[in-house]
Specification:
Strand content: 15-25%
CATH class of the largest domain: Alpha Beta
Order of helices and strands: HEHEHEHEHEHEHHEEEHHHH
Structural class: alpha/beta
CATH superfamily of the largest domain: Vaccinia Virus protein VP39
CATH topology of the largest domain: Rossmann fold
Number of strands: 9
Number of domains: 2
CATH architecture of the largest domain: 3-Layer(aba) Sandwich
Strand order of the largest sheet: 4-3-2-5-6-9-7
């Protein structure tokens, strides 16, 4: 088994395949040998478990997942890496590599076809530029998965895992909390990657709710309210919602008072129940 976290090994393999890193795809490969085993273990990969990995790169994390899980399906958008993965991970018969854009895949169908009767988790080292879209797709598609363990930019991790109603809370915080329970697992220094990014990373885990914790009659309207509330963070909830949704201030003011919410508050001070109450009463 090759040591895929070894810089010399990585350079030798990539050199033979004529591979160069793509800034556009946000490619940074892990070279810290302690990170991937820990991440794979904390993801829930185990016997009887199927894993979806997004962006396997050269296969450092994939290798660890294949050692633990019954089956791994790795989704890689860069076709140049397919022959690389065939070399680095050719010994694993519990691995399937799909050369597609995860944002265009029907993941519910993939799970039905690839993991019948298995528990399923997601584990990935996500490119910074597509962190939020991928996480929201995984949650909004209502996949039959137990958890999502991903490495993201440290600042994004802190924002996603911030408590709703705290200063760091944003629209993505509320959205993630609607579907799951987020937890920041551990930090990863920039020097753990090749090439090294300019910022540190962190590994987070989202334990996906099997049943809705927050019940709303219209999810689309709920998320429209959340987005509007945080659209202008420095403004009060009254001004932000009214201007973002094109509603009369008096109407929004009365609605907020009906919900026992001070119209002068900023969105970061509201709870999940507050957002639910607003969404259930507002007409947009």
């Amino acid at each position: 088994m090759k040591r895929l976290s070894d810089i010399g090994t990585i350079k030798e393999i990539l050199g033979r395949h004529g591979f160069s890193f793509s800034k556009g795809l946000g490619q940074n490969f892990l070279v810290n040998p302690s990170v991937c085993p820990r991440m794979a273990e904390l993801s829930g990969a185990d016997e009887g478990v199927g894993v979806i990995e997004i962006g396997p790169g050269i296969g450092v994390l994939t290798q660890e997942l294949c050692e633990l899980a019954d089956k791994v399906v790795a989704i890689e958008i860069d076709k140049r890496l397919i022959p690389v993965l065939a070399e680095t991970l050719g010994e694993y018969d519990n691995l399937k590599v799909i050369n597609r854009d995860v944002m265009e895949l029907d993941l519910n169908r993939l799970i039905d076809e690839e993991f019948p009767g298995m528990k399923v988790v997601v584990c990935a080292n996500l490119p910074y530029y597509i962190t939020s879209p991928v996480i929201m797709k995984l949650l909004e598609d209502k996949l039959p998965i137990e958890s999502i363990t991903v490495m993201v930019q440290k600042e994004a991790a802190q924002r996603i895992c911030a408590g709703v109603g705290t200063r760091q809370c944003g629209a993505v915080t509320a959205a993630v909390n609607f579907y799951s329970r987020p937890e920041l697992l551990f930090n990863v220094s920039a020097g753990s990657f090749m090439p090294a990014p300019k910022v540190d990373s962190a590994v987070i885990r989202l334990d996906v709710y099997s049943e809705p914790v927050y019940r709303v009659s219209d999810e689309k309207k709920f998320f429209a309210v959340v987005k509007a509330a945080f659209a202008q963070r420095r403004k009060t909830i009254l001004n932000s919602i009214s201007s973002s949704l094109g509603l009369e201030k008096q109407t929004v003011n009365e609605l907020l008072l009906e919900c026992n919410i001070d119209p002068r508050l900023r969105a970061e001070k509201l709870s999940m129940d507050d957002f639910v109450n607003i969404a259930e009463r507002i007409s947009i």
